[in-house]
What does this fold into?
Amino acid sequence: MARVVLESLSRVFPNPASPIRALDSLNLSIESGELMTLVGPSGCGKTTLLRIIAGLDKPDSGAVSLDGRVVNDVPPKTRDVAMVFQNPALYPHLSAYDNMAFGLMLRKCPRAEIEKRVKEAAQLLELNGCLDRKPMELSGGQRQRVAIGRAIVRRPGIFLFDEPLSNLDAPLRLQMRAELRQLHQKLGATMFYVTHEQVEAMSLGNRIAVMQGGQIQQVASAGDLYAAPVNRFVAGFIGSPPMNFFEGRVLSADDFESEQSYSRGTHGVRSPGFRLRLSQHPAQLLNKHVGKSIVLGLRPEHILLQGDAGDSCSTIEADLEWVQPLGRETQVHLAVLTHKFVALVPGNLRQDLPKRVKVQFQTAHAHFFDAVTGNALR
It folds into this structure.
């Protein structure tokens, strides 16, 4: 096991038009024995970060420390790190068994130990019937599992996974997630798993790091990322369907009451096409933002069709664009002027809805973000 500390890492790739800043003063700590997942959109710097930890690339500035030792100039083979790429990169002339055993053979491990480790990994990865086949005789998913097995048999202090399950079909991917969790519990090794799929990241990691633009935006548990995102990017990236956002201006209680036919004594938010009354807690949060532009965020499950919620919600009218039945739940796509948003409702929704519907916003669950910086208002 090893603790990984990344301090002020920067990596810039030259480009004739404009330099590409893959990492921008990135800081991150992965605790010894932890399974951390890193999630972010394509091009945010995830693979570059893994390659720098593995020693396959060097940062322009900053430090990579393993157990308190800076390893910027330490070659990959002596870092006790095993990396599994999205591309399996197997030796085409070797069998699956020999591909998995190759690293152990180089280290001159006893033959009995090699056979034991390879067979254990093959059992775990459902490769028992494929060990004598060469890569061209394996499916894409089987080749990727051989690559994972090649890392497993080494039993390194740190595992680095770069979207290793992307070539597997959905049922096997789900099974492999569970197997990787069990593998982590069995080995107790430090694991850093990169993916662009939030479900995979949230189901695997003890903690999840969200990355964008070469920087770590937030590191937290899956529940905290969902319930308390630190900025608009994290709020919109975590969750499926993603959080809805509405740009608007905070109204004082007096301003809101003067624009409504009834009085509630709480603040409101005015957005193009509608006004929302806020529940007591968000209203107190926004006291110092009265008159300012903000962004209101609301999860789809907190936007309900009329009749599904109580008096604590604010009601507006919206145009029904389309309905997407998904079995257990239904996504209702709505619009108010330029605002397009999604409500998530039970799957037994009737299909003959009118073109204009009333929806209720549960503003007690609302999130608020600075209109300029995108940071969450606390």
Observations:
- The first strand starts at residue 4 and ends at 13.
- The radius of gyration is 25 Å.
- Confidence is low (pLDDT under 50) at residues 309-313.
